[in-house]
Amino acid sequence: MRILTFEFRSAQPGWTLEPMALDAFNLLVGVSGAGKTRIVRAIEQVCAVALGNKEVDERIEAIRGASFAISFQHDGLTYRWEAELEPRAGRGSDDHGALHTVEPPLVRTERIHQGERSIVERSPERFLLNGQAIPKLDRAKSAIGVLKEDPSMEPLYAAFSRCIYRALEGLPPDEVRFGSIEEQGRAYRSADDVGADFTLPLHQKAELLQECFPEAFAEIKEAFQEAFPTIEKLKVYRRDYPTLAKEGVSFITLMAKESGVNGLIPFADMSSGMQRYLSFLVHLSFAPPGTVVLIDELESSLGVNCLPAVTRFLLSRAPDLQLILTSHHPYIIEQIPPSHWKIVTRKGSRVRVLDAGKLPAMAEDRSHVDRFTRLINLPEYEHGVQG
Fold first, then answer.
1. Which residue, 210, 182, 126, 160, is CA-closest to 45?
2. Burial of 198 (C-beta count, 10 Å sphere; 0-12/13-18/19+)
3. Residue environment code for 320-350, b if the CB has 16+ CB neighbours within 10 A, otherwise e
4. Where are the chain's structural domains?
5. Is the pLDDT of residue 219 over 70?
6. Contact 81, 111 (CB under 8 A)
7. Are the C-beta atoms of residues 352 and 18 closer than 8 Å to each other?
8. What span, in angstroms and rounded, lies between the C-alpha atoms of 324 and 24?
9. Separation in Å, CA 11 to CA 19, 59, 245, 353
């Protein structure tokens, strides 16, 4: 999946994102309060609505009453999905005779097109799939979620499933694994297969790479040691307890050996910068082409010593992945070419996103060293929030 354009209007207080174009690598920059984080969260919420998973109910509820339109490419085809969502209401549904649950209606209207062809036209009164009327389906879910096994909708569900956001934020100290690594490893033919399984938590994905595809895990270890040269060893360890071993249950965690430090350092005791960079490396090193990665405040928890390695790593993955990042940090902004910058501005509740590369003041043939200085002196940046 690659998002081409995105626009959004929330229910309260009428926050509106004007249509914005997205490239393969996007760094959202702008003054605090302009709307960078809100853009990332809105994309995340739209993905949650598409999939309709129970695990993301809080994100779905947060988007109620909004309307949006998203254009994207997947497997060589171009799609556009537009939707209006119902505001918060009481339980139940007014769709008499529809196949529905007791969940309140979520979707008011939906339109999905593949190129010029209409796939879905949906309203409270009717549901057209490929131009044919079908029984009205559960309005507590999007058409993408409720028809995910239909041949015409399956590619869209797969597209939105290739979006990583909270996996990079959740950093558990250790995890429970059921069954042997040999048994679970048979489901994966390559490191790319492991990388494509977004259901795998951090430590389990690392253990599969370590035990089944050691060369791939060695790449992660090498990249980690580049950022943290004092690390001598990185490995996933199992802790088996007799009372649980009979049931095939183990506790696993990433651990590191640092020069001059006695004993191993468990993931829970590593610095927050080490934890976050390890999460990036494990989840993104072998993520499949077409994966959309959302990272808010890239510099968060990362020390100055590891920012160069993190920035280089993400830029190296840009040809395959679509990255949508936010940052205020001068180093990160300096290291990323202005052609990748998106300047976020807000006037009242309306947000616009400008391509920095198209502004004459940010022309690529200008000096590299003053990029950040030129950025913060741009009128579009300096007056990024207006009443």
1. 160
2. middle
3. ebbbbbbbebeebbebbebebbbbbbbeeee
4. 2-162+337-386, 170-287
5. yes
6. yes
7. yes
8. 8
9. 17, 14, 51, 20
Which residues have a Cβ under 8 Å from the Cβ of 14 and sit 6 or more positions away? 349
- Which tokens hold the place of 289? 């082409």
368 CB-near residues (< 8 Å, 6+ apart): 334
Residue 39 and residue 353 in contact, taking contact as beta carbons nearer than 8 Å: yes
Q: What is the mean pLDDT of the chain?
A: 87
CB distance 16 to 87 below 8 Å? no
Q: pLDDT-derived band of residue 167, with 50, 70 and 90 as boundaries? A: low
Tokens of 228: 């943290």
Structure tokens belonging to residue 290: 């077409």
Residue 11 to residue 67: CA distance in whole angstroms: 8
Are the beta carbons of 26 and 39 closer than 8 angstroms?
no
Average pLDDT over residues 296-304: 88
pTM greater than the 0.90 cutoff: no
